[in-house]
Amino acid sequence: MLPTHIGGRDILQSRKALIAALDKHNGILLVRDSPVTDASTMKETLSNEEDPLISSMSYTGGSNNRTALVDGVLDAGTEPHYLHIPEHSEMAYLDRFPSLISFACVLPATVSGGSTTVVESAAVEGRLPAPMRAKLRTLGIEHVMYYGSEGVKTWQLAFSTSRPQDVEEYARVRGWALRWTPKKTGVYLSYRRASFLQHPRTRGIVLSQTDLSGSFYGPRGQHRGWAPFASMEFHRQPYSFRWGDGSEWTEEEKDSWGRAKEASLRRVEWQKGDLLLLDNLVAMHGRLPFEGDRKMAVMLGDPYERVQPDRGGWRGGMWVDSLKPSTVL
């Protein structure tokens, strides 16, 4: 069962109360009968001037196309309705990503489906084979992004600029490798990062990753799914990944990640006025297929910086060379 606060206005009265509830419930909290019914009331409730519950952040560098419904609130669930969006921590493939995320139900699926799935990252880690856990700790992940006219999102939209030199500078200061396609219509970015991070409140070391099943765009190697990306070679998709040493994930490793998530999934069966709050550092979310109309709003907030040069990456047996530029593209 999900931790549910019926009419949880006490939880929404202060940031202190919200954070305490999230920490108590392992980063997953569903507020029923909230005052949030659309993008405007979401912003009003979560970003009130006296005591903002979430410090909103932009979607810079994100891999999907999202429209701002109002300032600080984006549309959500825009991927094809027939897909099961695999569970992931939002934007955890980037160096700067939200530590808090909130979803509001504006309109549940009018025909069927559309549940949001949630899973605790610790549960996923615990179900992975021991060799995979060891590789995650020692090798980290190399993330490979493609932004271009053939992808989901152009680099101009991803980085809010029309100047290639701005993207080059963005990559340079982060130690990312960069390669332009001919005429700079698209760009590949690659960077190696630790799989684990230190939680800013609990100080515990936690697994925080995007989906590593290799099936975000649909079943691997098949035409079923998000066309045309599902049928592309994996390394040509808008987002792909390798181990931090440049070696490829095996199909069994990708399947192991998917099975570990599926074994611990819980569902949010949406009702209008529901507000789902997640600690994005310790919980993952996904979405099941749906039919009919469905409208969701999302607010990203409290950005976390994965790479912190003054500390040189995380120590204690973790893969620590998080500032080393990638050389594999």
From TrEMBL:
Pfam families: TauD. Transmembrane segments: none annotated. Keywords: Antibiotic biosynthesis, Oxidoreductase. Residues 15-299 form the TauD/TfdA-like domain. InterPro entries: AlphaKG_dependent_hydroxylases, TauD-like_sf, TauD/TfdA-like. This is TauD/TfdA-like domain-containing protein. It comes from Tetraparma gracilis.
